[in-house]
Amino acid sequence: MVYRSKTTNQYGKIKKNSIVISEKSLLKELSQLIEQSQQQFVSLANSNLTILFWHIGNSINKNILQNKRADYGKQILVTLSRELTNKYGRNFEEKNLRTML
Fold first, then answer.
1. I need a labelling partner for 53 at 20 to 30 A (CA). Which of 1, 16, 72, 84 fits?
2. DSSP 11
3. Helix H segments across the chain?
4. What are phi and psi for residue 21, nearest 5 degrees?
5. DSSP character for 66?
6. Taking Cα atoms as reference points, which of 49, 61, 38 lies closest to residue 88?
7. Would you give the distance in Å from CA 67 to the centre of its chain?
8. Domain count of the fold of the chain
9. What sign results for the dihedral spanned by CA atoms 50, 52, 57, 62?
10. Domain encompassing residue 71
11. CA–CA dist 22, 3 (Å, integer)
12. Whole-model pTM above 0.70?
């Protein structure tokens, strides 16, 4: 909410109108901007992770497994997941790599 207030100087003459913004209104507006930005950030991050995981699964499938489900693929996934988990965290555990495939 914005409202104008008239103030007077020491001689009682009216000074220029000054704009006063309600603190609650400003806080509400800023909170909405921050929350909207946070929601957009989360949505974008989720989209990027989905694309990343698809590319990882596709790359493993094409380059290592060669579109087959050979027994040696199981060992490769274990080794890959161990290395990737050590370097990048739990998102790259073996069960997650299988899901990415």
1. 72
2. T
3. 23-59, 71-88, 94-100
4. -110, 130
5. T
6. 49
7. 32
8. 1
9. positive
10. 2-100
11. 8
12. no
Q: Are 2 and 20 in contact (CB under 8 A)?
A: yes
pLDDT tens sequence for the chain (101 residues): 444 555 555 665 555 554 556 888 888 999 999 999 999 999 999 999 999 999 999 998 888 777 666 666 677 888 999 999 999 999 999 999 989 98
Which residues on adjacent β-strands are paired with residue 14? 8
Here the tokens at position 46 are 């989720």
Residues 79 and 94: their CA atoms lie apart, in Å, by 9
> Distance between CA atoms of 95 and 59, rounded to whole angstroms?
16
Can you read off the two tokens belonging to residue 50? 């989905």
- Residues 14-23 as b/e (b if ≥16 CB within 10 A, e otherwise) read eeeeeeeeee
The single-letter code of the amino acid at 74 is K
